[in-house]
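Appendix B. Extra example for self-study. Work through it before the problem class; the solution is given directly after the inputs so you can check yourself.
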Amino acid sequence: MADVIYDRDRPDRIGMPEAILCEGKSPEQIAAAIDQALQGADNVLLTRLVPAIAEELSISDYDEESWTGIAGTWEPPAGEPRVAVVAAGTSDLRVAREALRTLAYHGIPAAEYADVGVAGLWRLLDISEELAEYRAIIAVAGMDGAMFTVLSGLVPGVVVAVPTSIGYGVSRDGETALHAALASCAQGIVAVNIDNGYGAACAVTRLFGLDR
Amino acid sequence: MADVIYDRDRPDRIGMPEAILCEGKSPEQIAAAIDQALQGADNVLLTRLVPAIAEELSISDYDEESWTGIAGTWEPPAGEPRVAVVAAGTSDLRVAREALRTLAYHGIPAAEYADVGVAGLWRLLDISEELAEYRAIIAVAGMDGAMFTVLSGLVPGVVVAVPTSIGYGVSRDGETALHAALASCAQGIVAVNIDNGYGAACAVTRLFGLDR
Amino acid sequence: MADVIYDRDRPDRIGMPEAILCEGKSPEQIAAAIDQALQGADNVLLTRLVPAIAEELSISDYDEESWTGIAGTWEPPAGEPRVAVVAAGTSDLRVAREALRTLAYHGIPAAEYADVGVAGLWRLLDISEELAEYRAIIAVAGMDGAMFTVLSGLVPGVVVAVPTSIGYGVSRDGETALHAALASCAQGIVAVNIDNGYGAACAVTRLFGLDR
Amino acid sequence: MADVIYDRDRPDRIGMPEAILCEGKSPEQIAAAIDQALQGADNVLLTRLVPAIAEELSISDYDEESWTGIAGTWEPPAGEPRVAVVAAGTSDLRVAREALRTLAYHGIPAAEYADVGVAGLWRLLDISEELAEYRAIIAVAGMDGAMFTVLSGLVPGVVVAVPTSIGYGVSRDGETALHAALASCAQGIVAVNIDNGYGAACAVTRLFGLDR
Amino acid sequence: MADVIYDRDRPDRIGMPEAILCEGKSPEQIAAAIDQALQGADNVLLTRLVPAIAEELSISDYDEESWTGIAGTWEPPAGEPRVAVVAAGTSDLRVAREALRTLAYHGIPAAEYADVGVAGLWRLLDISEELAEYRAIIAVAGMDGAMFTVLSGLVPGVVVAVPTSIGYGVSRDGETALHAALASCAQGIVAVNIDNGYGAACAVTRLFGLDR
Amino acid sequence: MADVIYDRDRPDRIGMPEAILCEGKSPEQIAAAIDQALQGADNVLLTRLVPAIAEELSISDYDEESWTGIAGTWEPPAGEPRVAVVAAGTSDLRVAREALRTLAYHGIPAAEYADVGVAGLWRLLDISEELAEYRAIIAVAGMDGAMFTVLSGLVPGVVVAVPTSIGYGVSRDGETALHAALASCAQGIVAVNIDNGYGAACAVTRLFGLDR
Amino acid sequence: MADVIYDRDRPDRIGMPEAILCEGKSPEQIAAAIDQALQGADNVLLTRLVPAIAEELSISDYDEESWTGIAGTWEPPAGEPRVAVVAAGTSDLRVAREALRTLAYHGIPAAEYADVGVAGLWRLLDISEELAEYRAIIAVAGMDGAMFTVLSGLVPGVVVAVPTSIGYGVSRDGETALHAALASCAQGIVAVNIDNGYGAACAVTRLFGLDR
Amino acid sequence: MADVIYDRDRPDRIGMPEAILCEGKSPEQIAAAIDQALQGADNVLLTRLVPAIAEELSISDYDEESWTGIAGTWEPPAGEPRVAVVAAGTSDLRVAREALRTLAYHGIPAAEYADVGVAGLWRLLDISEELAEYRAIIAVAGMDGAMFTVLSGLVPGVVVAVPTSIGYGVSRDGETALHAALASCAQGIVAVNIDNGYGAACAVTRLFGLDR
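Solution. Structure tokens for the complete assembly:
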């Protein structure tokens, strides 16, 4: 079997632990990576760990909704939320919660705002005052990605857009939402890869600095 | 030279006169088509007629902003506007005005609302009550096309989206705006080809029936 | 589990009830959305509800051919058809019937014309007089989408094109039919997303106004 | 300067003379290729020879509408037309005439039918009896390419589709017309590259055998 | 269940019977279409009929290699082959045999040449004299589609290219082979849709005229 | 002429002044927008203002290298740089300097690092200690965009990737660099649209808060 | 069943044995190809042979990690490695090992370097001296493909890039890594198809000459 | 003006001098880069230097056909050719000669074979014995790129494919030729970016080692 080398020196260099992306790895490969990780650290984050594979492994803290797990001992952060994670639709929640879990693992409390897509603009307007308090907002949306632009026009913080693969036809598995974020007529929006809630959380963690 | 056959029987069959799309035609071809058209009708609409070519022809009514002309005798319609044409940005105006001119040529009065893109959401909210009175709204926007979805959530009428080729990079000459219209998380939106203000006006004319 | 918020105030604002798109949702999420919907309304439309999932839910009115269901109490509309729904091939029928069911749910009677693709042009010519009576026609076709253009040249009403993902190779899951609708050499055609029979029906409902 | 080698043995092997594609070649390169060709043959066909370049060369028979020239001595074929070349719109004529000239150069008489696009279906129906007499029809159309399918349903001969780059937006420089030809719900259609009138004529020449 | 209308008048009009494309249809829909077809004809061709579905139906003549069936009574044609069907690789055989079966059903005898891809050029050169006798050659190849160009340079007949979806990565499910056929530096090549052996055979049948 | 409405209330709402994107606007439209802007503010930023157009306008502070101008009275910021702007190649400098000018206009001092592409990895390693001091780095690169990933592995700050349209062939006008940024095997990278130096600077300004 | 013809004369002509690509072939087709191959040679390489199919065949030397098998008798090469095979991530190992096995089958010893992606640049720098000794390096990476450029700047040998389909979203099944290799700002990189470890090994074998 | 830093230490590290890509640079930027280069070396290669720009600079050795120049003092290599450069058509010669000049600049003699595209297969077969003597062949072709596969089946050396942007329609500016090279049914082919003759020569130089 392929040896899996876990990058133990990473936190020192760039201030952040490496996570284990489980997609495309066998349970054996994941288990080996966890073992190696826990030799040099108290815990390790696992992403894109589908329930079927998670059952075969002994993960102390597995979350079915975000497909994330944390192996080892770990405490969630306390205190006021410093980041808002905003999801446009019900189907965007898995990705939004991957971002929330990653932030929590990095010691950064965050608040979730769900089902505030712009087809029902009032829901978003209702919380715009609240959202205006955050320096950074992770926005999660698929289909047309119109929420990114509207949000960016309502708040002074930076909007980290996470396009999702939700939708069909010309949604093109998230490409339309991604392009809408990047081609926005508003400014203040930056984007990560489609469905990459983990990456959005890492970028925000870098902004604030890791707190663990 | 190629003979240009103008379809004189068209209004009887589908209730609408054929227009002459000037793009890709020589001044001679356009002049020949006008001649033929005016043998069977009082006037004819010319679209995508750039100023440089227009100067070489004797068009009684040429409009530089919409690149449209009307040859022959013609009277603009009077009365209350029945359609709203909404443009997101200054650069979208040529296309919006092609729609307005086409509606006017078809005898349908319409109202223009300019520079109401969703990056400045308040401008659009300010006129939403007014827009809610129209049965059909032609919405013209490039870049991310976010205006289509927001508009559709604010009004009960049908939104005919005209994506424009305004923008750069991932705007892809209007493809992103088009896909945003079609993949919208809202409903009640239909779309025409990129920059096709003429086509949007024709579809709306069919809804109301030609009035000439 | 993710909370599913149903938008109860929607009919007041834009004149149309929100439907529940079941694709990508678990039976539990769908059931929760139905419960919430029926607290504020007599019924709710479910779309893209595949038979396997439908069996797990207690839907009073499920239709296998259109993959739609209506939960709650509901009466189909009576009276003369106001819209024609035209399907090119046998394989386009699921999408065509999603449009028909949505229209019915919105209180708008409609007529179905099946298997009238332009490869056998005579079938379409045979019904062209009849189709010419409708103000709006929902046209459903995959592959080359040639029916959209032909239809638009035969009737005075607006043609709402629903490209379908039927076909293989360069059909590209409906992209070719969509582009054919938008790039048509005819006018009077507007388009919705690939396979989006629901969206076409909603646009037409907006034209006529909701009748429930 | 690059030597240009003209393939003099070609007619013997595959029954057809090579032509000189002038696009992307300098007048000097074209002149050299002509010289070489005329050493082994009485004449040679030049394609995509724009008027500006043609003026710099001494071509005995240059045709501005098709951008083709024939150097050397040459006689057009006489007799009944054996192939029909059908063009959908005025803008498609350059490509249609490239096909006609190539057929003539190959000794095959052909008939032109212009401006018979399916937006005005009656024009095409009017000539369908006539077209049904041909074993092969070269059909030239841009935009949605709907003519290919309709034509194929009206006649028993093979339809050689030449998509053109006419159109804008989702026409994608001929890609939509090409895909419509290939994804057609009708059968009996084969396609050549976009704007390739020459290639369509060559394929038809192979069917009949070269007659020079 | 959806009614399936079989086009019985087709042979009279365009000289060829309609076939039943089974892909995307349920066994019930296929059976209904067969019933209707056999009321007006002695037999009917079924394409893309996978073995699993074929087992559920009582098809008198089913061929597992080409996924085709012929319902009703039918006699294969006798006599010298009039068309060559050339397959580049083993994996291209299903499509090649769909073409062969369709030709046979249309009464046209044809010869198969297998595994003559140009990576091993000698195999193709060995049979080039033989192939030069045919007026039309159906060429079936995936991956780079290089065989189309080479073949076209070796024979005087028309080459009907059938690109296949064989390959991976930049083969793009047949798009590269299709584009290679259309962009060929040789002439005399026409193409049909990816994997469309049936369509290639129909085009060739139109060339020769149906013989049944 | 089209009226150009400048959004004077914008700074209050989202903490940042709107800039005037000059691309696609006539000198008259730009001049009108400047006039309107200077009625409510001391200065206004102009982007994508090519030298030829700039000459026709009286801009107090025009910079040829970044194609930016600032109309009105304005003072560059003083103090230590808070952001690093890193350009991979000489050809990326126009975009990098658009970012620098925008930051300066927003009152944020920044430092430029030029010609540090990863083909010559040592140049980047030489400055990695220095770059590690910044909370945010704007990275500008075209072609393969490999610099984004390497940079992100060397520093703890967030990397705002600006892909540029530099390159040819499969660079696809910046698409490859954009995709490389988004698909990076590293984390901590966010992206803006191709060539959008202005947008990257705006996002960073939002992080720090506007300082004017 | 389709006859499978194995090209026995191939080694004489181009110096290399043909392998059997098992993907898309049935176990019977593979077995027939092996039989034919072993009539003219001592052994034959099988690629893309998934474990489930391998179990049904009696392959003397099957390797689960590379999905390769060698039928017949065979000895691995001895001696110093002449080629380095470098894999960016754990998920790239299958493809890397396909290259290693192919080299071994061709008699060329090679060394594997795993998990040296550029997100952790130090790992790659640590082995750069070692890698600089090789005339040819096969580099295997997915996602952003940044390793290709960095590697090429560190070593004097040629870099044969094998992009892999590892990644999601804009990775586009390996297209982004492929384009990054080809659009590299470094030189000395050549590429093969996505996931084509076999092809990279064959190219390198041609460089050195087959040694069996 | 932007400073242009020339990488003087490059030859020591990776065994090859950096060239100056002139495309997209102003004459002033090119002149500055030359000055800097000649401070640390006897000569420097300039690529993509169009004649119009070359005239403004004083390049001792400029070649109009390849758009390359060599500034400083320089001697072409003597001796037997070690590499073959094969061009399919006349229009491919600029790119082929960029490769030849780059090889010469690197001290590697090479031989040119022009106009040997596979549409006229015999030309290529005629020289196949000769080509079989080379360890490496640079193959330059546009359109369908069929030459790459045929060549690879005729010779034992490695084929470095340089797809060119020659062609129209589905040639897609070289993409089809590139994909044909990568998806080839033959093996032993590696590819560089479209039109990148320089890159192909650099890769071959790395194979042989720089000889200057």
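Self-check: The CA atoms of residues 149 and 173 of chain F lie 20 Å apart. If your reasoning did not lead you there, revisit section 3.
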